[in-house]
Design a protein that fits this description.
- The structure is a single chain.
- This protein has nine helices and two strands.
- By secondary structure, it is mainly α.
- The protein folds into two domains: about 120 residues, no CATH class; about 130 residues, no CATH class.
- It has a two-stranded antiparallel ribbon with strand order 1-2.
- The longest helix has 28 residues.
- It is globular.
């Protein structure tokens, strides 16, 4: 518990100033975290024999997808084309094959899109940035609290045995109400309240699905955490599993609110 608290304090001491400063420093930090997240995925058990140059290419591509503002379609094209061409170049199906390439392209596009959009949201409106993080933080907090107090029915026992339907519902409801209240008071009091609640609830549910998705990946590889970069909390993907889906969901729905 002590490790968990200390690592959380250290992470916040780094994260909060970067969010406040924004600009190039936040973008560089996003690139660093994106590479760390990609590294965690590349180092999942069962992928140890992959040629090292494949990893280097993916690190380079994730930086491009995160950092570059213009001509992003070109980089998305390269992000899909190059990993597939590496299958031909490698010419060793036991080390790196088409299935591996498809998996890595999917994670590359997911992380690249998330970190790029996260930077864009911070640069456009820091209050929206806070609103999105509040959804995930409050949903997770209330879900844990509700599950601990009254949780009886397992939500997905084969993936995450500790999660319950009761905790999920309580997390979704309170996470939605609190985050939507912040949006109404701090961002736009003229917003359609019903639409705001519906979208916030949808994003809260999406965040919980993201958490379960990454839990399924860990369960599939028989690991508890993606890494131990934050003692007591796991790795980058362990901490960002919910917000990744929330941010991408918000980008798709941003024209509605």
């Amino acid at each position: 518990m002590k490790k968990r608290v200390i690592s959380a304090i250290v992470a916040l001491a780094i994260f909060i100033p970067l969010v406040i400063v924004g600009g190039i420093w936040f973008r560089i930090a996003a690139c660093v975290v994106a590479v760390l997240g990609m590294k965690e995925f590349l180092e999942l058990p069962g992928s140890k024999n992959r040629p090292k140059y494949v990893d280097v290419v993916f690190y380079a591509l994730i930086i491009l997808l995160t950092f570059i503002d213009e001509n992003r379609n070109v980089y998305y094209f390269l992000g899909m084309l190059i990993p597939m061409l590496l299958v031909i170049y490698c010419n060793d199906n036991k080390k790196y094959n088409a299935d591996d390439a498809f998996k890595l392209v999917g994670m590359l596009i997911l992380l690249g899109t998330f970190f790029h959009e996260l930077v864009a949201i911070r640069n456009d409106d820091v209050m929206i940035f806070i609103y999105l993080f509040l959804i995930t933080i409050l949903t997770d907090t209330y879900a844990h609290l509700g599950g601990t107090l009254i949780g009886k029915h397992k939500l997905a026992p084969k993936i995450s045995p500790n999660k319950t339907w009761e905790g999920s519902v309580i997390g979704g409801v309170f996470g939605t109400l609190c985050a939507a209240t912040f949006y109404y008071v701090g961002i736009d009091s003229n917003v359609n309240v019903l639409m705001l609640l519906v979208i916030t609830l949808f994003l809260s549910c999406l965040g919980q699905l993201g958490d379960l998705f990454f839990s399924a990946v860990k369960r599939n590889h028989d690991i508890k955490d993606f890494s131990n970069i934050m003692p007591g909390h796991g790795g980058v993907l362990d901490r960002l599993d919910s917000i990744i889906f929330v941010v991408i969901g918000y980008i798709l729905l941003s024209g509605i609110i």
